[in-house]
Amino acid sequence: MSKGVERNPAKTVTARGPRRRSRQDDVQAPAVPATAEFDLADAVPYLVTRAGMRMGQAFSKQLRSFDLNLAEWRVCAALHERPHQRLSDLAVQTTAEPSTLSRIVDGMIQRKLVARERSEDDARAIALRLTPEGVDLTQRVIPLAQLYERVALAGLSKPQVDSLKAMLRKLYDNMAVLDPGS
């Protein structure tokens, strides 16, 4: 076992008493004393959220001129990249709750940006795609999205950007242990 890393014992004690081992018990995390000070400004979840919120809020202001919000933009971008997705797959790709995403998609269908059609893989399933109007809108927004990404990444080298992206994907994947339903 690595120095400074603890594994949970066979039984873990929680506020509700002992419980059996679970997948999250096998996660190795740096040992942190229970009395450690907590510095919000240095906490990774805070830093990731703070950066994401700043980028999202600034980009959202620009999206208004296209009559889009950030969630709708994610739908457009996801369907542009991978057309003919089921709602459940689109929910995973856009990190939206399926019920929320369903309402967003319904509104985009009314605005003629998205269309439903039979899935090519399963005739019983419904897939979503951008309409020609949705494709046109997405193609007009992509340069703006690329500008915001360039600004956010200014001062970072290509290897640093690649490393940042890999680390963010790893953070996301690591959280599956604590949130197995998603």
Polypeptide structure, described:
The structure is a single chain. The chain has 182 residues and is of the alpha+beta class. It has a domain at 68-153: Winged helix-like DNA-binding domain superfamily/Winged helix DNA-binding domain (Arc Repressor Mutant, subunit A). 50% of the residues lie in helices and 12% in strands. It contains six helices and six strands, in the order E-E-E-E-H-H-H-H-E-E-H-H. The protein has helices spanning 44-63, 70-81, 87-94, 98-110, 132-152, 158-174; strands at residues 5-6, 11-14, 17-20, 29-30, 114-118, 126-130. Strands 1-4 form a two-stranded antiparallel ribbon. The chain has a two-stranded antiparallel sheet with strand order 2-3. Strands 5-6 form a two-stranded antiparallel ribbon. Helix 2 crosses helix 5. The longest helix has 21 residues, at 132-152. The two termini are 29 Å apart. The model is unreliable at 1-22 (pLDDT under 50).
Beta-strand percent range: 5-15%
The biggest beta sheet reads: 2 strands, antiparallel
Distance between the termini: 29 Å
Rounded mean pLDDT score: 84
Helix content: 40-55%
Q: What kind of oligomer do you see?
A: single chain
CATH domain class of one domain: Mainly Alpha
Which CATH architecture of one domain would you pick? Orthogonal Bundle
The strands making up the biggest β-sheet line up spatially as 1-4
What is the number of helical segments per DSSP (H or I, 4+ residues)?
Answer: 6
Might you state the CATH topology name of one domain? Arc Repressor Mutant, subunit A
Protein name: MarR family transcriptional regulator
GO molecular function, one term: DNA-binding transcription factor activity
Keywords: DNA-binding, Transcription, Transcription regulation
InterPro entries: HTH_MarR-typ (IPR000835), MarR/SlyA-like (IPR039422), WH-like_DNA-bd_sf (IPR036388), WH_DNA-bd_sf (IPR036390)
